[in-house]
Every structure is written in C-alpha cells, then in structure tokens.
C-alpha cells in the first residue's frame, strides 16, 4: 500500500494508519525509515528541531531515546509539546505528513 493523503489527526485509529505508513517505509526506504525530525519549543517560544530514531509506538504515543538533560529533553519537559515529521522519500504522496504527540 502506498502512503495516502489520509489525515493522521482525523483518524479514529491514527496509530493503525501510522503502522501502515511505517510498514511501507520499512519496505521501500534504503535506510533509517524510523529517522524523524523532532521539533520542540524553548521557554521563549523559539523552535528547535533535530533528528531522532523512532524506537516504537503504541496508542500511548511515540517512543524515542534521549537524555532528559539534553535540549530536547528539557524543552519537552518544560512545554509538554513536540512535533514530528518523517520524510519517506520513496513513498509517493501529494504532500507531507506529520504527527504530533
Ligand atoms: C539519523 C540520526 C538519528 C539520531 N537519533 C537520535 C536519537 O534517537 N536520540 C538522540 O538523543 N539523538 C539522536 N540523534 C542526534 C540528535 O539529532 C541531536 O543532535 C542530539 O540528540 C542533541 O540534540 P538536542 O541538543 O537538541 O537535544 C540522531 C541524529 C541523527 C542524524
């Protein structure tokens, strides 16, 4: 199945949809299909973004490893907000897909 234009945020079972997308990416991406840009925001409202590796997910959310004292760790604990954006180059899609959590 190819990546569709379904909206992750409007799905009744968004993680089932994400599971389909990731399964397609694992089959088609040459490397690191679990690499994801992780954006956070500092106490002044300024955004920061870096790559992490997704280590798992379930209906509770997405799992990645980080030092809690890193910039991303501090900012997530401070704001309790983050955004993720995967770039699955081999999955044809009319637009990009992102999730928050
Ligand atoms: C492909 C790739 C995967 C990475 N995966 C992780 C990861 O899973 N966890 C992590 O803490 N840093 C990972 N890094 C390093 C981060 O991008 C970042 O440089 C580092 O964690 C410091 O980020 P921070 O100071 O904004 O917290 C990865 C870098 C790359 C290029």
Polypeptide structure, described:
This protein is an alpha+beta fold and 101 residues long. Helix content is 24%, strand content 29%. It is built from two helices and five strands; from the N terminus they run αβββαββ. It has helices spanning 14-28, 71-79; strands at 35-41, 47-58, 61-64, 83-85, 98-100. A five-stranded antiparallel beta sheet has the order 3-2-1-4-5. A hairpin with a 5-residue loop joins strand 1 and strand 2 (47-58). It is globular, with a radius of gyration of 14 Å. It binds flavin mononucleotide. Flavin mononucleotide binds next to strand 2 and helix 2.
Q: Any key phrases for this structure?
A:
single chain; Pnp Oxidase, Chain A; 5-stranded antiparallel β-sheet; binds flavin mononucleotide; alpha+beta; 5 strands; 101 residues; globular
Summarize the helices and strands and which ones pair or pack.
Elements (H helix, E strand, L loop, with lengths): L13 H15 L6 E7 L5 E12 L2 E4 L6 H9 L3 E3 L12 E3 L1
The structure holds flavin mononucleotide (FMN).
The site of flavin mononucleotide has 13 residues, from strand 2 and helix 2.
Give a quick precis of the structure:
With 101 residues, the protein is an alpha+beta fold. The chain has 2 helices and 5 strands. A hairpin with a 5-residue loop joins β1 and β2.
